[in-house]
Amino acid sequence: MSTLRTAELTLASRANAYVALTKPDVSFLVLITTAAGFYMGSRGPVDWLHMVHTVFGTMLIAGGTAALNHYVERDSDRLMRRTASRPLPSGVLKPRQALAYGVALSIAGALYLYFAAGALAAGLGAITCLGYLLAYTPLKKRTVWATFVGAFPGAIPPMIGWVAASGRLDLGAWLLFAILFFWQFPHFHAIAWMYREDYARAGILMLPVVDPAGSRTFRQILLTAVALVGVSLLPAIAGLAGMIYFFGALVLSVALLQVCVWAAGAKTNSQAKWLMHATVAYIPLLLALMVYDKVLH
How many CB atoms within 10 Å of residue 39? Predict the structure, then answer.
């Protein structure tokens, strides 16, 4: 009986480890932005089944990319306290298992998007995966500009949804891209500030690692937050959303800017954590407003 129980626990731990490889919390935000992009890109009644297929294909690529990131960064993860318990550093899974899993999910996602949403959506998904793994990930140990480079693939998911719904990459898709692009800097710099000692231990050159005083880090947080205030209003100015969205986006973006100013004042880990939570709340709230107040064409 004890042997059977042990086998069940081992199977459950492996299953949980495979789920953990996909970084569900990060992937969830990817899926939210993809679905919002699809809704905003739809003309006339929304094809909900098509949206589900698009989100599912994007989920596969996002999960595969995350698993491959675990594989590539397994040695760095072993050196950081916050990542030492991940499936590969902890030994729950072997590197070759994560590699095979990540490759399989990524290829399956690209193929699924190709047949369900078209070549352009699949191409954007592939660019997201390859840009994250081949540009952003290796640059993290070479330059603080890695965050800037990584913001490009990080902002693509809503474009996947948009082109899946509309078949083209027009202004609305680029506006969603811009919002996600600028949002990533306050979000990731807040995380990097909280874990700067961990990143330094692993040799990862996030901006707070080379900026111990925090002046450059929080200046960049403030500048991109200011830019985000203006960029967040563009969907209403371009006629994609109405006045409810305009004023709601203004309130949300100014509130996020205020949190950035507050965090920049003391530069403590506690305030950086509050800023991180504020950025996580900002995106779904902003997109929900946009979806609610979409101007029909």
Answer: 19
